[in-house]
Automatic annotation (TrEMBL):
GO terms for molecular function: butyrate kinase activity. Belongs to the acetokinase family. It is found in: Cytoplasm. Its main location: cytoplasm. Keywords: ATP-binding, Cytoplasm, Kinase, Nucleotide-binding, Transferase. The gene is buk. InterPro entries: Aliphatic_acid_kin_short-chain, Aliphatic_acid_kinase_CS, Butyrate_kin. It comes from the Bacteria. It holds the Pfam family Acetate_kinase. It catalyses: butanoate + ATP = butanoyl phosphate + ADP. This is Probable butyrate kinase. Its EC number is 2.7.2.7.
Length: 354
């Protein structure tokens, strides 16, 4: 008997979906949500019906009978700290994501939509490697101000998948290896993996700037900015209008490269600065692993860029060999995670936090 799994990855401007039959992708779609459409909604949760309908329309257009599904898996959203791997989506999780998400992030719809579809046909819904996976060592939790604890919020799904794949490529088990992984997408985060555990990370508010996010900033200047601007304006400057958007008015690394290739020296300075900051964060996490590193892994959409990865490799090659796994295989990682649960190769946890 084969397993048919619907994987759902809601992003800020798109909902990516795929149907897998065991390990094989049989349908895939990137449903774009133009910014004018998104702007109509006050919160992420308010976008639920619009995104749900577009997913169901896609299944209907392909004459796919939803009742054929064995399970539905969604990207794990902004929950309180959870373990890596699979969780069953239950009412407590949906309540938390709908009413008390720890940040506003499109991924909070992953579990909510997955559960709705799964329930309508009487199958199970899962999340896998949520953005809030927290395996940090205690020493990594200290921020520098007693009432601010560091939050483990990362592109865990793609980074763990890349680390597990790299371990296989070098003929080892993930639990035997040490890796520093950098996810280079519209947002950038990095993680240190020590013998199968993500013991520290650099989140998208703590490290390099990215195509659309500011990364870490001088705190005194940030505080001043908060006193002269409304909160939504500051938040937008940090997420959405930060990074390449702030300096170059585009979130497309491809467009920036185009400008550089046409002689734009300012674009080159900014783009190289992004590589420089990524390399610095890799150095920071290399220290966490005391330099004992099997591979540094660069993944995500911008890892397709030879210009950017060359700049990074030049600065970090002295630490460890660099593996480049471009793109993000989030839909595949979700589907294969759920498949392992369905086959009994992996346990799914019960979510019981409020
Ligand atoms: N071949 C490429 N060379 C350089 N940058 C690329 C390439 N392909 C995609 N990108 C860039 O990757 C970024 C998006 O990465 P992705 O991992 O898809 O992020 P997200 O899922 O966060 O939107 C964009 O800035 C895009 O321009
Ligand atoms: C850092 C948390 C995960 C995240 O920001 O994902 P996106 O870059 O896909 O928005």
């Amino acid at each position: 008997m084969s397993f048919k799994i619907l994987a759902i990855n809601p992003g800020s401007t798109s909902t990516k979906i795929a149907i897998y039959e065991d390990t094989k992708e049989i349908y895939k779609k990137n449903i774009e949500h133009p910014s004018e459409e998104i702007a109509k909604y006050k919160s992420i949760t308010d976008q639920y019906e619009m995104r749900y309908k577009q997913i169901m329309d896609f299944l209907n257009e392909n004459n796919f009978n939803v009742k054929e599904l064995t399970a539905v898996v969604g990207r794990g959203g902004p929950l309180p700290p959870v373990r890596s791997g699979a969780y069953r989506v239950n009412d407590a999780m949906v309540d938390r994501l709908k009413n008390r998400p720890i940040i506003e992030h499109a991924s909070n719809l992953g579990a909510i939509i997955a559960k709705e579809i799964a329930e309508s046909i009487g199958v199970e819904a899962f999340i896998y490697d949520s953005i809030s996976v927290d395996e940090l060592d205690d020493i990594a939790r200290i921020s520098g101000v007693a009432d601010i604890e560091r939050q483990s919020l990362t592109h865990c799904l793609n980074m763990r998948a890349a680390a597990i794949k790299t371990a296989g490529n070098i003929g080892k088990n993930y639990k035997e290896c040490n890796f520093v992984v950098a996810h280079l997408g519209g947002g950038i985060s990095l993680s240190a993996h020590k013998k199968g555990r993500m013991v520290d990370m650099v989140s998208d508010v703590e490290g390099p700037f990215s195509p659309e996010r500011a990364g870490v900033l001088p705190t005194d200047k940030l505080v001043s900015m908060c006193y002269t601007n409304e909160q939504p304006i500051v938040k937008k400057k940090l997420r959405g209008n930060g990074g390449l958007v702030s300096y170059l008015n585009t979130n497309s690394a491809l467009e920036v490269e185009n400008r550089i290739n046409n002689g734009d020296e300012y674009a080159k300075l900014v783009y190289e600065a992004m590589a420089y900051q990524i390399a610095k964060a890799i150095g920071e996490l290399s220290v966490v692993l005391e330099g004992k590193i099997d591979k540094i892994i660069l993944t995500g959409g911008i890892a397709y860029s030879k210009m950017l990865t060359d700049w990074i490799v030049k600065r970090v090659a002295f630490i460890a060999p660099v593996e480049i796994l471009p793109g993000e295989n989030e839909l595949e990682s979700l589907a294969l995670g759920a498949l392992r649960v369905l086959k009994g190769e992996e346990e799914a946890y019960e979510y019981d936090l409020n």
